[in-house]
Amino acid sequence: MTEPVRLAKRLAEQLACSRREAEQYIEGGWVRVDGQLVEEPMFRVTTQKIEVDPDATLLAPPTVTLLLHKPVGFTAGLDAGPGPKAQAALALLTRENHAPDDRSGIRTLKKHFAQLRLATPMDSRASGLVVYTQDGRVVRKLEEDADLIEHEVIVEVAGEVTPGMLRKLADPVQYHERLLAPAKVSVSSQNEDAAETKLRFALKGERPGQIDYLCESAGLQIRSVKRIRVGRVPMTALAPGQWRYLAEHERF
């Protein structure tokens, strides 16, 4: 009976390469065992057929940025307050939740779900676009240029929104001892009976709780909040709970 050995060791023997190079091929998603993709160098094999993709390279896979449509009830770095503890949105970043129409051309690897940093916090009461990234440049861009990057948010409120309320929402506001830039606010849609209104906010330097504060100041009751764009990157047609890669040509 053949003794099981690590896949990296068997592959190194098969390719006459170093163990480290074999690990790089495996972790890069280039190796199949009996036709099944295996990305763990420690995986044990015996007599299975081991194949290496003809396009395999030892170049390290590039860092990635994932765009998630976070549903209500999942938290992303912010606590919604008292009540049941919300599940972390990070748990939604799995192969199964990858959007089938992702056009980035990036091959999904297990390494893409490791060492992710949250770049756009959101509490469990809100939904919409949340950015997770392995790329330190993306984190610096979204943090250091936060006052310049516009967030587009759809806010559903109860009742009719009058012109006076709109003006109030767009006023410069002192929030947590800081004067924030005026928000651009418009009516997106309104029910015929004026029971609810959808507002479109465009804010630069959005701060946690800012929209709640603006709506409360204008006498409006929020029913839902959904972020649909960060900078120049839209959420597009992502279904709740699905994610896609930030494509090479996209910039925040």
Automatic annotation (TrEMBL):
Keyword Nucleotide-binding: no
SMART domains, per the entry: S4
Enzyme Commission code: 5.4.99.21
Catalytic activity: uridine(2604) in 23S rRNA = pseudouridine(2604) in 23S rRNA; uridine(35) in tRNA(Tyr) = pseudouridine(35) in tRNA(Tyr)
Recorded GO MF terms: 23S rRNA pseudouridine(2604) synthase activity
CDD domains: S4 (cd00165)
Domain of life, source organism: Bacteria
SUPFAM superfamilies: Alpha-L RNA-binding motif (SSF55174), Pseudouridine synthase (SSF55120)
Domain RNA-binding S4: 5-63
Keywords: Isomerase, RNA-binding
Protein's recorded name: Dual-specificity RNA pseudouridine synthase RluF
Species: Rhodoferax ferrireducens
